[in-house]
Amino acid sequence: MSKLLIANSPVFTFLKTLHSCSTRRFSVGAASLSSVKGRSCLTLKDFSSDEIKRILWVSADLKHRIKHEKEYLPLLQGKSIAMIFEKRSTRTRMSTETGFALLGGHPCFLTTQDIHMGVNENYKDSARVLSGLCDIILARVYSHSTLEELDKEASIPIINGLSDRYHPIQILADFLTVQEHYGSLSGLTVSWIGKGNMVSHSFLMAAAKLGVHMKIATPKGYEPEKSVIEEAQRLSKQHGTQFVLTSDPMEAACDSNVLVTDTWVDFEKEEEEDKKKRLKDFEGFQITMQTGSVAKPDWIFLHCLPRKMEEVDDQVFYSSRSLIFPEAANRKWTIMGLMVSLLTDYDPKIPMIKF
């Protein structure tokens, strides 16, 4: 049979149409959701709106298929991750270790007491050695420059498990939690009430890209870094969202959908006088039901944990408005979504979630 006859046959036409529909399944409304395979994730500043949306979509897909449909998805079978922890952790360690194993891979937990990195061996050499032994590295470090050096020298993806500048994997979990609760993200307002730190920085690097308005309330002298504020202002203008910086927590809470805070004082490191000054500086910043009284009627509360009473009282923390425990659980699904996205060409099977 000639190629012309085959091309004009009803069967060929049907198969061509079927293929076209199959392709459009992931392209309609998501044509630009680019793959991030092979990339590192040191900060969400480096990721576009579509790339962040794709990671969240993959995360929601894995959660649905594995948790709800009880599917076994060995997407990372035969792969290993080096988990380097200079700082202790509950959620980051457990979510990464159990998540990588659930996907069929082998997690290796390493502290500074277990390896030579930064002690008897420089970061450059350690990065090159680990690149030949595993497929991806997650590092929870004190200095962001450590991550930058690892990323510069490694030939495999690096994930920021927390640094002094950014905490991107926390924000992915936060936005998945908010999306699940409200059904979409665009047009919502998130109010950060507390200290400018790595978590607030990460919110600012992602919020505008998802159509989310941001309000930041800090005491004077505790604002996010100047460069982060400037980038947040640029992103807000680019994406048509609002960005407010204030020293009044009630102004920030007004008409907000999400109230969020984090630790103000490191009680293990700061001297007693420093603690007293910090608590005095933050008077009025504790999130209470009074804070929420000026927010949207359906406002919710988030906290990356661990929490101290000074930041939020029990009435809010253990209320039905608090999504802190679903938020903590989503750390697992979003780190899984990120690792799968960085290591594979996986396409979600569920319809794209609404942003």
Automatic annotation (TrEMBL):
Sequence ranges assigned to domain Aspartate/ornithine carbamoyltransferase Asp/Orn-binding in this UniProt record: 187-341
Principal location class: mitochondrion
GO cellular component, one term: mitochondrial matrix
Domain Aspartate/ornithine carbamoyltransferase carbamoyl-P binding: 39-180
Keywords: Amino-acid biosynthesis, Arginine biosynthesis, Mitochondrion, Transferase, Transit peptide, Urea cycle
InterPro entries from the UniProt entry: Asp/Orn_carbamoyltranf_P-bd (IPR006132), Asp/Orn_carbamoylTrfase (IPR006130), Asp/Orn_carbamoylTrfase_sf (IPR036901), Asp_carbamoyltransf_Asp/Orn-bd (IPR006131), Orn/put_carbamltrans (IPR002292)
Pathway(s) the chain acts in: Nitrogen metabolism; urea cycle; L-citrulline from L-ornithine and carbamoyl phosphate: step 1/1
Localization per Swiss-Prot or TrEMBL: Mitochondrion matrix
Domain of life: Eukaryota
Enzyme class: transferase
GO terms classed as biological process: citrulline biosynthetic process; L-arginine biosynthetic process via ornithine; urea cycle
Pfam families assigned: OTCace, OTCace_N
E.C. code: 2.1.3.3
Gene Ontology MF, one: ornithine carbamoyltransferase activity
Quaternary structure and interacting proteins, as annotated: Homotrimer.
Entry's family note: Belongs to the aspartate/ornithine carbamoyltransferase superfamily. OTCase family.
Name of the featured protein: ornithine carbamoyltransferase
Species of origin: Channa argus
Lineage of the organism: Eukaryota, Metazoa, Chordata, Craniata, Vertebrata
